[in-house]
Amino acid sequence: MPSPSARYPRLWPLARLGHDRVRNRPVLLYPEGAMFINTTGQAILALCDGSRTLDQVVAALTTQYQAEVRADVLEYLETMARRDLIQWLEAPAPVSSWWPSRTRSPAAPRCRRTSPRRCCAS
C-alpha cells in the first residue's frame, strides 16, 4: 500500500460542499445528513477531488495559509475518512469521476414549489 503522501484523497461522490445562507456557514451535504464545517475544512475538502495527492493538497494549503498544515490536514482527512466522507485512492481518479457538472440540462424538470415537503421532484 502506498504511503499516505502518495494517495489521492477524494470527497465521497454523493457528498458535496454547500453554503447555509441562514447561518452563513459552509456545510458538507451528504445523503444521510449535513455537517457544518469551518472555512479551513471547506478549503481542504475543495481540494479533495481525487486528482491531487495528499502532498499536493498540503502544498496548496501551505501556500494559501502561509503555515505548516500537514499534520492538521492529515488529521482532518483521517477523521472524514472514518466517517466515510473521504476515500483514499491509489491512483488519480478518472476525469469522468471528478466533480459532476454543475450545469443542468435544459430539458430537466425544475421544482417550482416553495415547500421542500411538497416538491414535485419525486
Provide structural commentary.
The chain is of the alpha+beta class and 122 residues long. It has a single domain, classed as Alpha-Beta Complex (Outer Surface Protein A, domain 3). The protein is 27% helix and 19% strand. It is built from three helices and five strands; from the N terminus they run E-E-E-E-H-H-H-E. The chain has helices at residues 39-46, 54-65, 70-82, and strands at 8-11, 16-20, 25-30, 33-36, 86-89. Strands 2-3-4 form a three-stranded antiparallel β-sheet, with helices on one face. It has a two-stranded antiparallel sheet with strand order 1-5. It is globular and about 40 Å long. Mean pLDDT is 83; it is low at 101-122.
| N-to-C series of helices and strands | EEEEHHHE
Spatial strand arrangement across the major sheet: 2-3-4
**Radius of gyration over all CA atoms, rounded:** 17 Å
Q: Number of helical runs?
A: 3
Distance between the termini: 43 Å
Estimate the strand proportion: 15-25%
CATH class: Alpha Beta
